[in-house]
Amino acid sequence: MTSNPPTAQQDVLPSEHPGDLDRHDPEREIAARAVAFRNWGRWGEDDRLGTLNHIDDAKRVAAAGLVRTGRTISLSMAFDMSGPQKGWRRRTNPVHTMLDTGTDAERGQGFPHGLGGADDVIAMPLQCATQWDGLGHIFDHGFAWNGRRAGDVVTSEGDLVTGIEHAASVIVSRGVLLDLGRHLRPETGELEDGYAISVADLERCIQAQGASSAVGRGDIVLVRTGQFGRARREGWGDYAGGPAPGLSLTTAGWLHRTEIAAIATDTWGFEVRPNEFDVPAFQPLHQVVIPNLGLTIGEMWNLEELGTACAESGRFDFLLAAPPLPITGAVGSPVNPVAVL
Fold it and tell me: Which of 7, 13, 24 is nearest to 278 (CA)?
């Protein structure tokens, strides 16, 4: 039997101060934010995009106008067997296998007039490296985005309703880098594992970076903590599923009222880890923002080169193209995001 989602009315919005969380009651803290910031029905009963609806043609035209130098920066990590995955929930690093090689060509592959060729194949979980979490990735008490029953959305055949293929032409917009690593830790540029980024942190970072980092409707926000750069320098360690800096559960209201289209971080799990409770809790901010807000989340983005470029130029917004692969029925997708400066 699927339980009903919380529906209690909110007289007062949940606190945006991490210190106010009841660290012994994740169920209540999650439910308060799920109810307060739920977007179900906002774009109609048949909606498949959630907050990606905030991106429109005018937004993309304005984003294209941000291009000044034409410099392009890939925000993806390498898709290879040297990645961070260690097998949690059967997530492995990409396995790349050659089907035909130059050696085969030298020895003859059966083609006429000396033609030779190479072919290859890759096997990988869709969320093992730089990726988007789709709207069918996380459920809240058995309910998926827009109030649908989880079992009616995702079956053994895949996500039948909000599959990632519906976003394939959508995710091109104004990108905004919020470099919390540099802002909060200017001496190192890296937040320590377990640091919970608050609304106050986000707003002070925007103020410090200046007008080009103002966040608004239809933007794709990128949060650099510096953890990716540290892991790449020192070794992956427990990057995949271990302690990490990240957004506090108390940022849910900010994510809602800014009307951003999507958000991505340079960490494995987007939100702070360990989570902010003294009793068992797992990815509570995911549980609020994906099935309730309809927010698309990106993880494991390489924001190091972009962070340096933005710091040097003093500009923190850019054209961002980050379409997922149109994999029918997928609940997530690898992505090679490209920032155009």
Answer: 24
The residues, ordered by sequence, that sit 6+ positions from 92 with a Cβ below 8 Å of its Cβ are 85, 124, 125, 128
Which helix (H) or strand (E) element contains residue 333?
A: strand 332-334
| 309 vs 312: CA distance, rounded Å | 5
Separation of alpha carbons 146 and 251, rounded Å: 21
Instruction: List, for residues 244-294, the tens digit of each pLDDT value.
Output: 999 999 999 999 999 999 999 999 999 999 999 999 999 999 999 999 999
Q: Residue 205: which of 253, 254, 252, 244 has the closest Cα?
A: 254
pLDDT at 12: 86
Q: Which two tokens stand for residue 264?
A: 């991505």
Residues in the chain predicted with pLDDT less than 50, given as ranges, are 1, 8-9
The SS3 assignment for 316 reads coil
Type of residue found at 34: A
Structure tokens at 297: 């989340």
In this structure, what are the phi and psi dihedrals at residue 305, rounded to the nearest 5 degrees? -65, -40
H helix or E strand, kind and range, residue 321: strand 317-321
Give the chain's domains with CATH numbers: 23-85+127-340 (3.50.30.50), 92-123 (no CATH)
Please report the pLDDT score of residue 4 as a whole number: 65
The tokens for 60 are 């993309």
Residue burial 273-290, b: 16+ Cβ < 10 Å; e: rest:
bebbbeeebebbbbbbbb
Identify the bridge partners of residue 311 per DSSP, sorted by sequence position: none
pTM: 0.95
Strand partners, 154: 159
With residue 298 as reference, give the H or E element that holds it: strand 296-299
Instruction: State the alpha helices, DSSP H only, in 37-166.
Output: 57-64, 102-107, 150-153
Query: Using CA atoms, how far apart are residues 168 and 186, in angstroms rounded to an integer?
Result: 37
pLDDT of residue 8: 47
Burial 134-144 (b: 16+ CB within 10 A, else e): bbbbbbbbebb
